[in-house]
Amino acid sequence: MKVCQKDDMLTFKDEPETSSQAPKDRLPPWNVLVVDDEPDVHSVTKLALDSWTYGGRPLKLTHASSGREAIDMLRDRGDYAVILLDVVMENELAGLDVAEYLRKRLNNNRTQIILRTGHPGTLTDNEAAAVHGCNFYEPKSYITSERLKSTLAVALKDYSSPPHPSMGCGR
Q1: Cβ distance 100 to 67 under 8 Å?
Q2: Handedness of CA 87, 92, 94, 96 (dihedral sign)
């Protein structure tokens, strides 16, 4: 509060912006689709990434519990930066069906796919990338909170970079 000596008028400082008032220049969140048939995986992923940001932008997690549900979501809204995708869900190849749908049917080579599996050895890193268009292949047993954030940071960096004309599958 400031008191003006001349005429004893009070003037008030503008109120600071509260958290409910979003600044107009705030960047939109990164849209991330989490696809897994295990509810605990969704819970742990949400917990690990709850307040994490990349490039000053938070994450907006959307969840699907089957490959079929993920395909429906991709068909309705294809602006996901990253998909955290389980391989084995309603069948042994459900996650790979989602990857194929995104890459071949929707012709989307920009969205980054982090393939996560509880069944390592189902396919090689090379098969995941070259055949199915996945950008990362992570056994669930190796994924820690820090490794997930690190992989997501690389995926978001790749997503936000302009595609290089000579890049092949997955870009």
Answers
A1: no
A2: positive
- Rounded to whole angstroms, how far apart are CA atoms 31 and 29? 6
Closest CA to 99 of 149, 51, 145, 133: 133
pTM over 0.90: no
List pLDDT tens digits, range 9-60. Answer: 544 455 444 444 445 568 899 999 999 999 999 999 999 999 999 999 999 9
Alpha-carbon gap, residue 13 to 125, rounded angstroms: 59
What is the phi-psi region of residue 51: left when phi exceeds 0, alpha when psi lies from -120 to 50, beta otherwise? alpha
The residue behind tokens 């000596």 is 5
